[in-house]
Structure formats: structure tokens, C-alpha cells
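Sanity check

After download, print the first record. It should look like this:
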Amino acid sequence: MPLPEGWSIETEVAEESNQKELAAVAAQAYRQMKQAAAAEGIDLLLCSGYRTVEYQENLFSQQKQKWLDKGYSEEDAYNEAKKVVAVPGYSEHNSGLAADIVTPKHQNLDDAFGDTDAAKWMFEHAPEYGFILRYPENKQAITGIIYEPWHYRYVGVENAKAITASGKCLEEYLDQNV
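Expected C-alpha cells:
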């Protein structure tokens, strides 16, 4: 679903080291989570948070161009690109509620991040701070996005705990609760 016309959000710095921003409520929750993780020896790093639609357009165009360069048609390149980068205006990053969270020792956005201590800590504790793993493993057919062990979505503590306990991805959870 696209963001509404004229969408705006109040953001604030969530990650001091690189000045990455999130929606204010998500930024506060992230800082609390980062502090709790640090108390257990886990170093979290927000590498991507709020993005403007224009920034998202650039990311999407770059991804689409990779497929065009491989000889894909416009339509096929578009369809391949949207599996990896959300369509501009449809990205949760544009809402300020999406957070790509890694660790300084593993900043690659790849499946291997899921095996890090930071990812394991996030899988277990993120719901306590209102975040859910947005694109879980083996859910691409439902979400339309590849497995992203670094990509979290702020939904509030109560919702995060319920969604995580259900074992469902956000789409499945919303479908059952509509």
C-alpha cells in the first residue's frame, strides 16, 4: 500500500554514530533497544532508517538497471528489482518505521547476518521494544521480498509481541486479524 498523498512524519536521530533517523517513536524505541543490547555485550548499528521517496527512487533505479544490464526487459527488470528494493512510495523506510539494523563487525546486508550474535539477540529481544523481523526466512511468496535478517519494522510493543508469538509475517498476521 502506498503512503498517502502529502505524507509527512516527525523524525529524529536514532543512531548517533551516523545520524540515521527514524520516526520519533521508533527512534526512541531503537535507542532503548540498542542500550539494552549493549548491556549484554551486543553492539547494534542502524545502517538505514528513514528515507525520502526521492532517495528510494534512486535505490530502486539502480537495482532495476542491474537487471536491464543483464538483458532483462523493462517489465522483468522492474519485477526483479522490487524483490530486493521496495517500490518508491511503498517502502517502509519512507514511513520512518523501518530499520536496517546490523553490527559494526558485520555490516553486509546478507543472509550471513542472520548467524551473528547481534541478529540472534534481535530475533529474541526486538519485540520487547516494538520491532518485528519484517521479512522472515521462507516468507518471500507472501511478503514479495527476500529474507532480510537485518530489516525490522516498528509496530509497537503489544503488536510486536503478538505478531512474533504468532509465528506469522506481518501480511499473514494482518490477514487473520482483519
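If your output differs, re-run the checksum step. Summary of this record's structure: Residues 53-69 form the longest helix (17 residues).
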